[in-house]
């Protein structure tokens, strides 16, 4: 929710609370049948907490106890998600997945910060509170559940292979060797491990992908190409091998 929208919502709620306190029954007052829709200090200049849960709303709003005058959006209900007429079903699903990926990236960085600080300061797990250990256990369980849900949405092995394939085509073309997606074939050799055959001048060239790393399987030895996501490194190594 944008800042301007938050301010508008606060002003609307303040106005309605004032009318309700004054006992006004004019037709312009919104009627709320939700129990405890508005809670907090009635003498305050603005509501310290309010909660809109009518089915006509796609979300509920409630101020966290520790930050009384803030607004927090709760998760979108499935009904609101399904009945959203502003997007097609395909858009809803795809945008939802992209948002999950974005949030997971942010959560991963938060954990990275804790790991780095703990390592730098040479702290052990004795510093964890009881509820922190419980939270870590929940994180493990939820990650497993998220992985299972992601698998139900898409074949992750196929998705990984297609990502590697797309990037290899792009990297070879940037090296100056023109290939097409149909010039690559692959077999899955294990979890997150794929063997690619790249047709160059009628000859297959073997490149393995194993947990993020690319390895050229030459006739006499293996040659690391680098991490798939390190474009400059991979392109430099492909150039050394195929355009010396």
> Secondary-structure element sequence?
HEEEEHHHHEEEEEH
Content-based structural category: alpha+beta
The amount of helix comes to: 40-55%
Overall tally of domains: 3
The count of helical stretches stands at 6
Shape descriptor: extended
How many β strands by DSSP? 9
**Termini distance?**
54 Å
What number is the mean pLDDT? 79
Low-pLDDT regions: 24-64, 67-74
Q: Which strand order spans the largest sheet, edge to edge or round the barrel?
A: 5-6-7-8-9
Q: Could you describe the largest sheet, including whether it forms a barrel?
A: 5 strands, antiparallel
- How much of the sequence lies in strands comes to 15-25%
Radius of gyration from the alpha-carbon trace, in angstroms: 27 Å
Q: How does this model look, in words?
A:
- This protein is of the alpha+beta class and 244 residues long.
- It has three domains: 81 residues, no CATH class; 65 residues; 86 residues, no CATH class.
- The chain is 46% helix and 17% strand.
- A hairpin with a 2-residue loop joins strand 5 and strand 6.
- Helix 5 crosses helix 6.
- About 20% of the residues have low confidence.
Brief account:
By secondary structure, the chain is an alpha+beta fold. It is built from 6 helices and 9 strands, in the order αββββααααβββββα. The chain folds into 3 domains: 3-83, no CATH class; 89-153; 157-242, no CATH class.
How do the helices and strands line up, and which of them pair or pack?
Elements: H1 3-21, E1 38-39, E2 49-50, E3 61-62, E4 72-73, H2 78-83, H3 89-120, H4 130-153, H5 156-175, E5 184-190, E6 193-200, E7 203-210, E8 213-217, E9 222-227, H6 231-242
Antiparallel strand pairs: 1-2, 3-4, 5-6, 6-7, 7-8, 8-9
């Amino acid at each position: 929710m944008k800042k301007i929208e938050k301010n508008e919502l606060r002003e609307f709620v303040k106005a309605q609370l004032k009318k309700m306190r004054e006992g006004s029954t004019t037709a312009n007052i919104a009627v709320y049948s939700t129990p405890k829709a508005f809670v907090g200090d009635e003498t305050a200049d603005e509501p310290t907490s309010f909660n809109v849960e009518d089915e006509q709303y796609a979300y509920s709003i409630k101020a966290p106890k520790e930050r009384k005058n803030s607004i927090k959006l709760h998760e979108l209900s499935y009904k609101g998600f399904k009945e959203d007429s502003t997007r097609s079903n395909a858009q809803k699903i795809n945008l939802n997945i992209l948002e999950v990926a974005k949030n997971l990236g942010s959560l991963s960085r938060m954990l990275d910060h804790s790991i780095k600080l703990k390592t730098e300061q040479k702290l052990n797990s004795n510093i964890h509170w009881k509820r922190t250990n419980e939270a870590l256990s929940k994180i493990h369980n939820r990650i497993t559940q998220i992985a299972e849900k992601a698998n139900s949405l898409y074949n992750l092995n196929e998705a990984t292979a297609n990502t590697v394939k797309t990037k290899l085509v792009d990297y070879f073309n940037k090296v100056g060797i023109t290939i097409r997606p149909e010039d690559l074939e692959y077999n899955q050799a294990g979890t997150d491990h794929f063997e690619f055959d790249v047709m160059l001048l009628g000859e297959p060239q073997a490149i393995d992908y194993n947990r993020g790393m690319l390895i050229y399987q030459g006739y006499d030895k293996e040659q690391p190409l680098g991490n798939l996501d390190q474009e400059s490194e991979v392109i430099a190594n492909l150039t050394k091998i195929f355009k010396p």
